[in-house]
Design a protein that fits this description.
This protein is of the alpha+beta class. It is built from eight helices and 15 strands. α1 runs antiparallel to α2 and α6 (187-194) packs parallel to α7.
Length: 268
């Protein structure tokens, strides 16, 4: 299999476990600060690792539950999140994602995001992006017509008190032009690539994040506008993320963010 095929297959392995475990009596594994995993997260990641280690034994793997493994140089790193949206899943909400991304040096070479409940896989080869349903691939074409903007209201709030996503949602000018939505899983990133959402906004440090890597890769492959909260290259510390379907939507949201945040706080 090529790298894209591996990414799709690994995401599919995780999605199969997530579907199988849904609605069962889950064991919660405390991570501290209110965060937790479940045995479904762990089992899904283990299933993904078995396939990934067989197909790419010399690559580094960074997993949400198992951390960094592999003896490679680090030039090829797989980032996997077996169940993004654990809280939703634990309360029997079918809003979750299984994320797999391959980063070669600093660029995404392949990625797949599986929606385990809709039998959908969003994937990219780093240049284009597609939605696979029933083995058939359809190119992703983002647009901002919906005016729906997903916001991540979960901590950390790296740029508070100057900026919080909740402040933007309450802004009268924002309310006049957009409609906020809150989805606690990065499946929302893929919705920007499909045209189901106009944009996605989050605070925090995105670099090396297993949560965001695959969704970001799909968005970039689809041609979305992807920057940090001030319109600069994303991934340079806790500078957040602004992903928009088109430049017009991005520009409008960037101007609103800058009403509150004109520069990032000095980081220690």
């Amino acid at each position: 299999m090529n790298d894209v095929g591996v990414a799709i297959a690994v995401a599919g392995e995780g999605a199969a476990v997530v579907r199988h475990r849904f609605g069962t009596n889950l064991q919660r594994l405390d991570k501290g600060a209110g965060d937790f995993a479940t045995n479904a997260d762990v089992e899904a990641e283990n299933a993904m690792l078995v396939l990934l280690r067989r197909e790419r034994p010399h690559d580094v793997v960074l997993g949400e539950e198992t951390g960094s493994t592999g003896a490679g140089s680090g030039s090829r790193t797989w980032l996997i999140d077996p169940l993004c949206g654990t809280l939703n899943y634990a309360v029997k909400m079918r809003v979750a994602a299984v994320n797999v991304a391959l980063r070669v040096e600093r660029d995404f070479a392949a990625a797949a995001v599986a929606d385990p409940f809709n039998d959908e896989i969003f994937w990219t080869d780093g240049t284009s992006a597609f939605l696979r349903i029933g083995g058939r691939d359809t190119p992703l074409i983002p647009n901002g017509k919906s005016k729906l903007v997903d916001m991540n209201f979960d901590p950390p709030f790296s740029n508070a008190p100057a900026f919080k996503a909740a402040m933007l949602a309450a802004d009268p000018e924002f309310a006049a032009n957009f409609r906020p939505r809150v989805v606690s899983t990065t499946i929302a990133l893929t919705w920007v690539a499909t045209g189901q959402r106009a944009a996605y906004i989050t605070d925090g440090d995105i670099q090396n994040s297993v949560h965001f890597a695959a969704g970001l890769a799909v968005c970039e492959g689809a041609g979305c506008v992807v920057t940090d909260l001030l319109g600069n290259a994303w991934g340079n510390g806790p500078t957040g993320l602004l992903v928009a379907a088109d430049s017009e939507t991005h520009g409008a949201l960037l101007r609103l963010v800058r009403k509150y945040l004109r520069e990032f706080p000095t980081q220690p």
